[in-house]
Amino acid sequence: GAALPPDRQLALLGTALAQSRSPVLLCFDEVQTVRADEALLALFRHLRTTPAWVMCVGREGAVLPDTFTLRLNGLEPGEARQLIGQLDFALSPALLERLLVKTARNPMLLRLTAGQLHAATVDARRFIDQLDVQPQVAAYLVDTVLRDLSPAARWLADLIAVFRHSIDLYDELLIELMAPAGGPAPLDRALAELQRRHLIDQPREAALHPLVRDHLYTALAIDPAHKKQLHLVAAQWAEGHSGDLVETAYHYTRAGRLTQAAQGLVDQSEALFNRGQASAAAEVIDEALAQVRARRGALPAALRQLLTARGDVLKGTRRAAEAEASYREALALAHGQPMARAGIVRVLAQSLMQRGQVAEALRLCQSAVAELPPGDVIMRARLLAVQCRAQLALSEYREAEQTARAALVLAPHFAEYLPQVADDVIARAERTLGWINYTRHPQGDESLTHYRRALAAARRSALHVIESAVLSNLGTALLERSDWDGAAESYQAAYAVFESFGDVYSMGVVLHNLAEIYHKRNDLTTALHYLERACEMERSVGDQEGLLSSEQGRSAVLLDMGCLTESRAVLDEVLRGYSDSNDLWTLGSCLIMLAELQ
User: Fold this and answer.
1) Ramachandran angles phi, psi of 317, nearest 5°
2) Which residue, 21, 51, 483, 555, has fewest beta-carbon neighbours within 10 Å?
3) For residue 125, what are the CA distances in angstroms to 88, 94, 97, 296?
4) Rounded to two decimals, what is the model's pTM?
5) Tens-place pLDDT, residues 339-376
6) Is the pLDDT of residue 379 over 90?
7) Three-state secondary-structure class, residue 53
8) First CA to last CA across the chain, in angstroms?
């Protein structure tokens, strides 16, 4: 017959629930589809007056106010792996972990992915890398997550997708930057919609599901002007709020503001290396370089700056050869510009010395100093602080001492308004004087005095690269005094900092020095282990002088172990390869050892 009126239906339902002898749980799925249906909302309100338990499941917030809401995120790790076992994924552990991160362990997304990966022709790595645009997955995201999103909410979601980390949508600077970029007004409505649709949870830590983020960012490619505008907002926020140099440059690069990206990176490239951000910075620089080279209108200044910054963040790492190539290309672009040329020579010379090309480093420094205007005290001091190190490596001790002292005379002229630059000069020059005095009086106090001055200057301005190098030198001086524990502590402190920013060159030096401690303690097996690790690192970065020294040390340990044939083989190989070495100190040590072996 005819259906009963709704109010009568509700009355009968309420009576039945009240008379039930067992607890009743009523479950409703897809409740977001009835948000505008007043009759069904009346049903939910009526059910609240009955003894029944009601559970509503949907992709949006509760349909009635004052309802306890539980948000379900992805599966727990154990649950996800159990499901993966059932779905029979044939993936390597690394690829499987990447899939779990991209899907945030969402069971539906895992099921959709499994169905596609079982096809024999699918390249699993490529499929997972492009998961957000795979037809079935993309359709699922569009139909269930992004469907009917208002333009204002979509704009805000696009902005969140541009950031590579969670953001505070209540941040005042961010709100100020949104308005001129076409952001939603009023903001609270767009925010409420994103929360109601469960696209974000907490506005103060707004972040999208990884696949939703990837899908939205990929979709921005069809509107490049909008995409650049959003990246510009992100760049200006990062520059003014967080001070994250890498993120600022990344967003400026993707906003097409290459000059701004280059300027920030070149000004702070050494700081980025000190902070252990070299790898992340190199990725951004490479992207910016690709854009500069692709432009029809040449940007030689930006290209030169980016190449210099690239050298700064790669020097001392396993990509040291790339650093040197970048410096040389930048130097070629600085022809006829003495100041720009001097700045590049200063860092190129350091890279060359690490790779055993000390004579060229010295020639470049002397040439750049000669080209500087007479009144340029700052760059002259910085070049002299590097030049004295090259003279030291060439065993030109008298000239190195004169140059270091000349740099120290110039440093006070700009210490008041450029304290970090002055400390850089002081630390490098004092370190050189410390080593010179160590070679003259290994057990004297004067070398320790210079090293401690260098250490104080480096620590004042957070010059971690120089601080670590001085700690290594200080360890050597303590070793000479048979303070083995003090030397080991100094070396370990230096190694930890070098390792934090990937300076393989300096790590090799410290391992060599640690081997010396174990050698003196007669723990020859451990000493040999450290020297072999040092040799491997020195080969990887092209540190020929360091390799010469470590191989000579290896020969000495083998000699003390009674392995005369092996020791002689190592030494013969060293002398064949490095007979023209500029490191007269180590070369002389090799010849002395050869005499002992004979």
Assistant:
1) -95, -175
2) 21
3) 16, 10, 12, 35
4) 0.66
5) 999 999 999 999 898 888 899 999 999 999 999 988 89
6) yes
7) strand
8) 116
